[in-house]
Amino acid sequence: MPLERYQYLSNVWRDGLFANKVIFCTGGAGSICSAQVRAMVHLGANACIVGRNVEKTENMAKDIATARKGAKVIGIGAVDVRKPELLQAAADRCAKELGSIDFVIAGAAGNFLAPMDQISPNAMKSVIDIDVLGSYNTVKATLPYLVESAAKHRTDGHTPPPNGTGGRIIFVSATLHYSGTPLQSHVSVAKAGVDAMAMSVAIEQGPKGITSNIIAPGPIADTEGVARLSKQDHREKSSKGIPSGRYGTVKEIADATVYLFSDAGNYVNGETLVVDGGQWHTAGFANGFAYPDFLISGDVVTGVAGGKKSKL
Ligand code: COA
C-alpha cells in the first residue's frame, strides 16, 4: 500500500540525497526494514530486499517502489539468511542489475517468547543462526561491494562529498540484553553477538572507509516484533512506562537510518543508536507476563503472535 511520506520519513531530509545509490536489505519485507528501505528509496536510492517468503518480498518491493517515480526495487524471495550461497547470489544479482551496493541493512531476525527451559536446542540454534550467522553471511556477501563504494565515496569531514556517501552498513539489533529480559534469552544472546559483529566490522573495515553501526529499536508500534513479543491488552499500559510516553514509529527508525547513511553520520562508526524513547533505562519490556510468577508457574506463552505450534 503506497504510504504518505510522513508515515516513514520526516520532512528534514532533502530529496535526491541518495540518488544513484543502491541499498541491499535482508528482512526487507518486515515492518521496520521496509520503512528503512522506503525512506532510502524516497530519497533517491534504488533497492534490493531479500526475504524467505517469496510473495511477501516481491509484493513489498513493488510497494516500496511507489515511494519515488522511476525507482527500481527488486524483491528476491526464498532467501534464507542462514544459507550463504543464497545471499551471495542475491547480492551479486543486486549489484549486477542495479549497478552497486552502497548501503546494507542486516535486518533479518527470528524471535518468539519462551523461557530458556522451554526452548529446544534447535530453537536456540535457529535464532542464533538467523541473527548472528545471518548477519555474518550478509556482511560476507556484500562486503566487496561496500568496500568498492566506500573507496569512491570517502569523506574527510571538511568538504561536501561530491557524489554523496557509500560503503555503510547498519545492523538492526535490540535493547533486550542491556538489562536482561525474561523469555528472551535466545534473542538476547543472538543480539549481543550481532552487536559484537557490528563493532568488529567497524574496526576491521573502517580503515577502508566503511562505517558499521547498530540501530537498536525499542517497542515500535504496529510491527511484527511487538505482536510477537507482547500481549495486545498490555500494550497501552506498558507504553505509559516508557519515558517518552508511547511506542515508537517505523518512521523514527527510518530517520535514524537516513542519519547514519548520510553525510550527517560520517564519523559515527562502531556505535549503537538506540531509538526507544528511553525505554531500556526503565529495565525491561513489560510484556504482560508477570515476573517471576509466570516463570515459576511453568506455563507456556500464549496470546502473542509466533507462539509454538503443537506437533500433535
Ligand atoms: N516457543 C518455543 N519454541 C519455538 C517457538 C516458540 N514460540 N517457535 C518455534 N520454536 C522452535 C520450534 O519448535 C523448533 O524447535 P524443534 O525442532 O526442537 O521443535 C525451532 O524453534 C525452529 O522452529 P521452525 O519453525 O522449525 O524453524 P524456522 O527456522 O522456520 O523458524 C523461528 C525460525 C523459530 C525464529 C520463527 O519464529 C521464525 O520464522 N521467525 C521469523 C520471523 C521473526 O521472528 N521475525 C522477528 C520479528 S521481531
UniProtKB/TrEMBL annotation:
This is Peroxisomal 2,4-dienoyl-CoA reductase-like protein SPS19. It comes from Macroventuria anomochaeta.
